[in-house]
Every structure is written in C-alpha cells, then in structure tokens.
Amino acid sequence: MLTQAPRGTRDxxxxxxxxxxxxxxxxxxxxxxxxxxxxxxxxFEHTELFxxxxxxxxxxxxxxxxxxxxxxKRSVTLKPEGTAGAARCFLESNLYADALPCKMYYLNAPxxxxxxxxxxxLREHHQFGLECFGAQDATAxxxxxLLAYRLLSGLGIRNLSVNINxxxxxxxxxxxxxxxxxxxxxxxxxxxxxCRTRFDRNPLRVxxxxxxxxxxxxxDAPSMIDMLCDDCRAHFEExxxxxxAGGIPYQINPRIVRGLDYYTxxxxxxxxxxxxxxxxxxxxxxxxxxxxxxxxxxxPAVGFGMGLERVLMLMDAEGIRIPEPAxxxxxxxxxxxxxxxxxxLVESLRAEGWKADxxxxxxxxxxxxxxxxxxxxxxxxxxxxxxxxxxxVILKNMVTREERTVPVREAGKTLAEMRKEEQ
Length: 423
What we know:
Blueprint: H1 17-33, E1 37-38, E2 44-46, H2 47-53, H3 59-64, E3 66-69, E4 75-78, H4 83-92, E5 102-112, E6 124-133, H5 138-154, E7 160-166, H6 173-184, H7 193-201, H8 212-218, H9 230-246, E8 250-252, E9 264-274, E10 277-286, H10 290-293, E11 301-307, H11 308-317, E12 330-334, H12 339-351, E13 356-358, H13 365-375, E14 379-383, H14 385-390, E15 392-397, E16 403-407, H15 411-422
Parallel strand pairs: 1-5, 7-8, 12-13, 12-14
Antiparallel strand pairs: 2-4, 3-4, 5-6, 6-11, 7-9, 9-10, 10-11, 14-15, 15-16
Helix pairs in contact: 5-9
C-alpha cells in the first residue's frame, strides 16, 4: 500500500483549507475590481505549446517539464506555467474577435515543475494569475502591478518592493544582444555550462542565472534600458509615471529579465525580504508577440503569476492569523430511539441556512455532547423522550449554558434570536 504523497507534493487537509479559501476570496475580489473574469484551462497541454511559447532555451522547457506520451503517441506536458495555456485558450476560442482588451484570471491553478522543491514552491504548486490581451498602453502594466501590490499589502505582507525593468522589443533587442555578447565573450570560461549554451542562443538569459559565479560575471553588464528604442523608452517612462500616480514605491532593476522567452518590454517582480533573504512572491510582464507566435493575430498582452503556497508561507512568517470559520452552527443530539426525528431537524435547519449536523456513530447522549463540544458548535439542539412526545427541542448555548425549550418548527427562528442576543 502506498502511504506517502510523491516528493514535492502535499495534501491540503480539511483543517487548513479555510486559509486557502480566505486568500482565494481576496484574490477574486481584487481581480473583479479591475474587470478580470475567471478562465480555467486544462492541467495538461500539447508539449509544442510550451516549446514554442515559453521557449526551448529556458530551464523550464529543457529541464523542468513533466512531459510524457499518451496512448495515442502524442507528447503532452503538465503545464509548467499559466500564460501559454491562457493564450492558447484566447486564440482557440476566438476571443480576440470580441471587444478588447480581454481580461481573465486563473486561480488555484496547479503548476508542475520537475525541480528540487523550494520554500513556498513545490513540484506541484498553485498560482493566481492575471492575463490581459489586447492592451498596448503602459497603464495596463501599471494596473497589474498596483493590483498585486495592494492585494499582498492588504493580506498583511510587509517589506514589499516593486522591481521593474524593460527588456525591449524585437526592434531594439538585437543591438543589446550584440553588446551583451561582446561583454560576455571574454568571460565564457567562467560561466556555468547552461550559460555557455545560452550565450549563442539567448544571451539575455545569462542575466537570469541564479548561480553566484555567473551573477558575479554579469554584475557590470550593459543595461538594456540604455539601448531601448524610442517606443520602448516612451512605454517604460509611462509605466513609471503610472506607478508614481498610484502612490507605490518601485525601483528599476536592470537584472530582471524573467525566465521565459515570451517577455517583451515590461518585466517586473514583487519581492519581500525575509530572514533567509529576498523572496519573489509575484512576477510578470509583457508578452506582446506570444499570441502571434502561436498562430494568432499580432496582439499585445501583459500578465503576472503569484504562488498561493508562497503567499501563505509569507503570511505565516508575518504572524498573520486567518480567522477560522465555525465548523458548525448547531449540533443536534438525541436519545437513541429518536434518531429519525434528529435527522429531520438537521435537514430542516440546513434548509434554513444553518450549518448543522448530528451523531452518525450511535454514540450515547453523553458521548454526543462530548463530541459536540469538540466540534466547537456554539449551539446544541437536543431531542429526548419528552421532546419527541411534545414536538419540542431543547436549544442550548454551549458557552453561556442558557437553555430554551421551543417547538421544533421554531428552532431556526429561536436560534437566530439567541445568536443575535449573544452579539
């Protein structure tokens, strides 16, 4: 018998699911305020989608994807990120023919990466992501950054910093690639094996390497911002003006390039400082040519991804307590021969909107009360011999010990009165 979850995965227990539901509700509210609507895409896609969209020079495609052949000999991949699937959905469903921009979000979407499990990011983790298709102005970029910043701040996460950069477009990036390759040409022997491969195929990715030895080699590398074309420069300046208007602090970080090939112009990360160092909690940017690369029209787009596990981990580190909702409002206890009457009462209370339950294990009345206390239900409702005979029920406040005997048909109304008096 297999008794352990696969490495890099974990179970979400009933005792902690309320924490996820809490932040998910806050995320849905934040998305709705900005006009984003939910999309749900498949857990797996054709492998070609990620090879073309994410980029075959990325670590994700080269090393981290869960890829396999199905029974039809087709190569499929568990999605390693959310944007490519959202773009495929946008294109396949002809959403570009509707009024633009098209704003959509995904939530609690499982993401799969075959890599060593990290703090706040397992091999199967979950993301909240927003994707905006058809908006070219920097106001759309700023809107997303502000949304993420205010959401995380509202959840109580402190020490947030917004880091932005521009990595240009196909018009100005080739010039920067040449300058970067010239800079790196004398340092190739000091780069890791992966970065040596990146040098010819995508030198920008060398800046994204997390190895200390490579970071040391690129610390004085030329900045893309110094080589932006007029359009990209104007876009980046407008982004900064919007962020200033939004009243949030930011800093320009020329080393942010993100790890995916589809990004253009704006890239950004929201970073928080922890005792173990800086931690990226949200990242995104523009991908103005992704839809076209997938066979669709030439449409601009921008988005971000935020890990739910990482958000919860940071909230725990900050000592932020998420209020746990009551499991039950009322627990019905009964003498053994009156189980059916107890069942009828439970169902009538549920029909009125009460979270109600009863004993399903043939416990004694004393044991039922003991269990009711463990559930934390603020009220109990008891049917004994006299109550069954008279069509009544004893309602009890489990904290104050106050009791009221009322007709069964008035149980819900009386419970409402007792709860109101307690507030």
